[in-house]
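Q: Convert this sequence to structure tokens.
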Amino acid sequence: MYIGITLADAGLKSIRFDRDTCAALADRFVLMPALTAALIWVGKSLLPLPVLETKTLIIQSAVPALAVLPILAGEAKGDTQYATNVVTVSTLLFVIVMPVLDTLLQGLG
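A:
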């Protein structure tokens, strides 16, 4: 609700793809799944994981930004517009990222 209220106040035109937002999205959708996959690969000798669990952990690492982020930014007197923008854009883009990530993970098993 908080995101909806903030977005309604700012309007849909407030959604933007500036440098900081693109960096946050790249971290969320590229860096984190790659880092998770690398850590799983490095740790497979110590703790081998089933393929389904490996895929689940990698997909979980790419989920949209924390929905409570704008609330936390507001409580800390931070930039709630930016936080709302990141949550909204990452949630919308996850509809595209999820099938792509799933297709990439088909090679695991």
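The two ends are 39 Å apart (CA to CA).
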